[in-house]
Amino acid sequence: MSRNGLVTDGEGWFVVNARESRWRETGPLGAFCTFEGKRRFPHFGINVSVLEPGEAMARYHRENAQEAFLVLSGTCTLVVEGEERLLTAWDFFHCPPGTEHVIVATGEESAVVVAVGARGRGRGATVYPVCEAAARYGASVERETTKSAEAYAGFPKWQWAPYAEEWLPGTLVPRA
Questions:
Q1: CA 32 to CA 84: how far, in whole Å?
Q2: Residue 133 and residue 144: Cα distance in Å, rounded?
Q3: How confident is the model over 89-129, as pLDDT tens digits?
Q4: Among residues 135, 160, 155, 145, which one has the least CA distance to residue 29?
Q5: What CA–CA distance (Å, rounded) separates 134 from 84?
Q6: Who has the most CB within 10 Å: 33, 77, 91, 172?
Q7: What is the pLDDT of residues 76-90, one digit of tens each?
Q8: Which of 105, 120, 114 is nearest to 63 (CA)?
């Protein structure tokens, strides 16, 4: 247990509710939990992201690994390969390696999105290209880069945070 929620510190199996897990607040990039502790999961990462209207999950980018996204609640705009697509609850976006993309909450309420991505991407595997459609949402870089520090310059550094009750719909059922 950390002061901001439950974290794992081993290699065995575990169960944790997202509301009890440790979260990160990233300012204009929303809040998310990874369910991971000091050691990252070796094969894939999984995040539950909560985005307020106008917040993007990331900068517009492409990676060398497969990703997948499922909108659980709210309304988002997916910018994929320079085109915009509306996403609503239960819409699934499969993102093959090399696909340029970003998801932005564009409804009147917060959006909850589950993201899963393969690990082992290697150095220099993420490219942040310029995209006019993503720029309309403040989610594009001004100049293409492969350096995340450049892509996210001007954004506040994320901080660990305890779960906030308003982030996820539904109620926490106490465990026996």
A1: 23
A2: 15
A3: 999 999 999 999 999 999 999 999 999 998 865 555 899 99
A4: 155
A5: 9
A6: 33
A7: 999 999 999 999 999
A8: 120
Q: pTM for the complete prediction? A: 0.90
Q: Which residue has the tokens 């897990």?
A: 21
Distance from C-alpha of 158 to C-alpha of 83, rounded to nearest angstrom: 29
Report the pLDDT value the prediction gives residue 85, as an integer from 0 to 100.
Answer: 98
Distance from the first to the final alpha carbon of the chain? 19
**DSSP-assigned beta bridge partners for residue 104:** 56, 77
pLDDT band at 73 (very low <50, low <70, confident <90, very high): very high
170, 174, 175, 176 alpha-carbon torsion, rounded to 10°: -140
Question: What are the angstrom distances between the C-alpha of 51 and each of 7, 28, 81, 166?
Answer: 22, 9, 22, 12
What six digits make up the tokens of 88?
A: 């609503």
